[in-house]
Write a structure and sequence with these properties.
InterPro entries: Tscrpt_reg_PadR_N, WH-like_DNA-bd_sf, WH_DNA-bd_sf. This protein has seven helices and seven strands. It is α+β, with helices and mostly antiparallel strands. It has two domains: about 130 residues, Winged helix-like DNA-binding domain superfamily/Winged helix DNA-binding domain (Arc Repressor Mutant, subunit A, Orthogonal Bundle); about 40 residues. It has a four-stranded antiparallel β-sheet with strand order 1-2-3-5. Strands 4-7-6 form a three-stranded antiparallel β-sheet. A hairpin with a 2-residue loop joins strand 1 and strand 2. It is elongated. About 20% of the residues are buried.
Length: about 180
């Protein structure tokens, strides 16, 4: 299965979107693992498919978002097997709840589920630590200030040298961290 680039990440063969610092092409979920994650999330509270997608994204610190094309078929399989049931809804979105049969499966596989959620949490922690958003914001701010300050008519060479010295000093301080 190929990969499609899109926006700030890529769609991987595991049916989800990995952002920055990917997992070397490894799938987020191996066979049956997404099923367990969805069961556990539904055990916590009834949810719509979209809510489940967002919950997984949140668990991974925004580093992975499962695609609807993998979540909704898995929900259908869970419903067909009797592990979840559709709740009465007033809108077009279907909400699901776990059944006693689904809870029994979670209990039977609670070690695997705990390990799986620990892995998702660790992935999220690594993603949050490597997320360069604050640095990108600061660099953008610096660029905007430089463009504004140095684009004026009659900028003196002395000002250019002062700005250069400040930037060089900041680079040296960062290098020493």
């Amino acid at each position: 299965m190929g990969m499609r680039r899109s926006g700030g990440g890529h769609w991987g063969p595991g049916g989800g979107r990995h952002r920055g610092g990917g997992r070397g092409g490894r799938r987020m979920f191996e066979s049956g693992q997404l099923r367990l994650v969805l069961l556990k999330l539904l055990d916590d509270e009834p949810r719509h498919g979209y809510d489940l997608i967002r919950a997984i994204e949140e668990l991974t610190g925004g580093g992975y978002t499962p695609s609807p094309g993998i979540v909704y078929p898995t929900l259908s399989l869970l419903q067909d097997s009797g592990d979840i049931e559709e709740l009465e809804a007033e809108g077009a979105r279907k909400a699901f709840a776990i059944t006693d049969q689904g809870r029994a499966e979670l209990e039977e596989k609670k070690g695997e589920v705990a390990t799986l959620f620990e892995r998702l949490s660790s992935f999220g922690e690594r993603h949050r630590k490597s997320d360069g958003a604050p640095i990108r914001r600061a660099m953008g701010n610096l660029g905007a200030v430089l463009e504004h300050r140095l684009s004026r008519e009659g900028v003196e060479d002395e000002l250019v040298h002062q700005v250069t010295a400040i930037i060089d000093e900041a680079a040296q301080k960062i290098e020493r961290l």
